[in-house]
Amino acid sequence: MVIYQNISLKPYNTFGIDVKAAQFVSISSVEELQVLCTTFNLSERKKLIFGGGSNILLTQDFDGMAVKIDLKGIDTIKEDDDFVWVKAMSGEVWHDLVMYAVDHNWYGLENLSLIPGCVGAAPMQNIGAYGSEIKDTFEELIAVEIESGKLVKFTNSACKFGYRESTFKNEAKDKYIIVSVTFKLSRKGILNVQYGAIKDTLAQQGIINPTIKDVSNAVMAIRKSKLPDPKILGNSGSFFKNPEIELNAFESLKVKHPTMPGYPVGSDKIKVPAGWLIEQCGFKGKRIGNTGAHKDQALVLVNYGGATGNEIFSLAKQIQATVFQTYGIQITPEVNIV
């Protein structure tokens, strides 16, 4: 384990923002992480913990320690006639884990294909797409307690999953570093193809009885058609969460805006697509300096090259203000602002 000084974080965040960290270390074993927590008193330091850097917006130089989690490995730890328990280390690329499951014909992760980032970030965000969330297949995770260096197990219920939420973004924030995640995948599952875009894509391809691979390919085709590759155009995927509003508020808005889409969440709330709100406010494809909202998906803010984190953050705040002024709906970032 080597701790470097004054290192650029540009290669380590998908927005491609060029800021520096006062200290930088890459962790490739659980034992190294435990030593960092205890011997180097990580709990007392200002720190930035990250994996793929796909869910952060860096707005300034970081005067603490940037810790890249690079723990690798995917293993089957248990199986029976109906299920397989797969353990992935937190530094594994999320999509690689999905492809591992798809290639083995195990159900549960196929709708989450091509989501950027690493496995360790998945439970923190309770990542989801096209009708699925990781809480649906999540079994448990192991994390290092930063203060003590001890390993702690979190079950599904202990993670307190919500919409793009978990205990790791709330009461357990900055107290633990996830080192592995275990998923319970089905050998005989039922494919979730009711999400409109998947159903339409499969129909266009003439697929009537889709396989796990077919669904995964459909999801990848949809994502590629709407979302820019961060290796080509800096971005962090969806920048904002889809807001949930009260049913009566939605019904009032529908009177003024009849085309507004909404999806029931329980019996008294409606989820409104943030991308639709942003597009209606005129930001889709709009470029401001070196940043803007993507031409194919208004929910994705991009770095056209040379943008600072503050430029992107300024655009985000402008979008928030315009959406609120137009619809009275507050949209909040899904991305972590540093």
Keywords:
alpha+beta; 4 domains; globular; Uridine Diphospho-n-acetylenolpyruvylglucosamine Reductase, domain 2; single chain; 8 helices; 338 residues; 20 strands; Uridine Diphospho-n-acetylenolpyruvylglucosamine Reductase, domain 3; five-stranded antiparallel sheet
Unreliable parts: none
CATH class of the largest domain: Alpha Beta
For the termini, the CA-CA separation is 25 Å
Q: What fraction of residues sit in β-strands?
A: 25-35%
Q: Which strands sit side by side, in order, in the main sheet?
A: 6-7-12-10-11
| SSE string, helices as H and strands as E | EEHEEEEEHHEEEEEHHEEHEEHEEEHE
What is the total number of structural domains?
4
Helix content: 10-25%
Mean pLDDT, as a whole number? 94
Instruction: State Rg.
Output: 20 Å
Characterize the overall form: globular
Number of helices: 8
Topology (elements, then pairings):
Blueprint (H helix, E strand, L loop, with lengths): L3 E5 L11 E8 L2 H9 L8 E4 L5 E2 L4 E8 L4 E6 L3 E7 L4 H10 L17 H5 L2 E2 L2 E2 L4 E8 L5 E5 L20 E11 L9 H9 L7 H15 L7 E5 L5 E3 H10 L6 E3 L3 E3 L2 H7 L6 E2 L2 E3 L6 E4 L5 H19 L8 E2 L1
Parallel strand pairs: 2-5, 3-5, 4-20
Antiparallel strand pairs: 1-2, 6-7, 7-12, 8-9, 10-11, 10-12, 13-19, 14-16, 15-16, 17-18, 18-19
Helix pairs in contact: 4-5
